[in-house]
Sequence to fold (442 residues):
Amino acid sequence: MGASTLTITDNRTGKRYDIPIEHGSIRATDLSQIKTGADDGGIVSYDPALANTASCKSKISYIDGDKGILRYRGYPIEELAEKSTYLETAYLIVKGELPTTSHLGMWQHNIKMHTMVHENLKAFMQGFRYDAHPMGMLVGTVGALSTFYPEARHVMDLESRRVQTRRLIGKIPTIAAYAYRHGRGLPWVYPDNDLSYTGNFLSMLFRMTELKYRPDPVLEHALEVLFILHADHEQNCSTTAARMVGSALADPYSVVAAAAAALSGPRHGGANEEVVHMLREIGSIDHIPELIKHVKAGERRLMGFGHRVYKNYDPRAKIIKEVAHQVFSVTGKSPLIDIALELEKIALDDDYFVKRKLYPNVDFYSGIIYDAMGFPVEMFPVLFAIPRTAGWMAQWAEMVLDEEQRIARPKQLYVGYDERPYLPLDRRRDIGAQETEVHGPL
Ligand SMILES: CC(C)(COP(=O)(O)OP(=O)(O)OC[C@H]1O[C@@H](n2cnc3c(N)ncnc32)[C@H](O)[C@@H]1OP(=O)(O)O)[C@@H](O)C(=O)NCCC(=O)NCCS
Fold:
């Protein structure tokens, strides 16, 4: 094998540059030495949406999209989903290793110590309108948490980082459940720390007048698996938002609020909602061929199919499909599942989807499960944010401790006006955008 360098010839000047290659990458800053003269700032790499830019080194999750592999800290997602609990997985993600029995016990205890929220935070949440979107409530409330824990701004302090991590993982199901019950006008249920992480969450969501809520073990297990599958996923949009905001040394509550805000977008945390809408719209198996026709004509997309990274069956979708059947044994079969299974069968046999490597992704089945469990679609991104909090915190801490990281500050390619003379107000009559112009960006 030859030298680990990339040789670039600048045809503008005829100069040659040898740029080191490390981990299959070149440093974008190495390009800045390629200049035409002293006034030239040097070459920059242009990468809208950061599609081919590694912005950090990370040891947390690993994806091989062609092979359909997802691992947390080296452990395959399939094994974690089968053998671990969510809190065990969260420990692995946050700390880097699977816990021993005693460490797991301490970790569970430490998280449970933080499941309650300050009564003023409850009052804050009660201030939302009766029909507030639960994801908006979650984003706002997590941001508000920073005012309750001002010491959280000491982000370089290990003990502070640890406490805030436990607080966030402990409190986020409570905030999510309060947001859910707020929309229903139901009294809010305090945490029950005798229950598991997901059992307690189910209790805070669904408990009515019973003295002791006993979660259905199948649904409790289904949520554990769904939470494990959603705990981390490399440098996706919300994780990148967490790292960006964190790079300014903002406190971790602001960081998680920013990440959750990114997740609230339909391109990120909203795809499973779209799947449920699509399956309801199809309504019956007979209507599938018609839909496929429209999809192949490029008129619409098959929601829950395709992935930016996975060009093979999303490993999480395989696991979720199994869980769906277990859930239906309790909730009764969802009318959507037959349509989903038939749609998947037809699509996987069809050249259009095969050629483009379009397989079901995690969202194809998760929405059907949540729907069968009685969650309204607005809760879907909230259910995603709860487990992803462990991933966001781990990624944030990794970034804070990474000596190569500084405040994130991308470059731009300026394509606007060159300097021009200022126009006094009375000379601007027919120039420039009108306030009411329909084509302006805002
Ligand atoms: C996830 C997604 C945005 C990834 O997109 P991407 O990797 O950028 O892929 P592209 O948008 O470049 O699409 C590549 C080709 O596949 C087609 N395609 C991609 N996803 C498709 C889908 N769900 N249904 C039908 N066609 C699809 C595109 O039309 C394009 O076809 P073309 O080459 O003939 O133009 C995309 O697959 C999608 O929109 N899926 C549906 C929404 C969804 O489930 N999102 C959740 C992701 S976890």
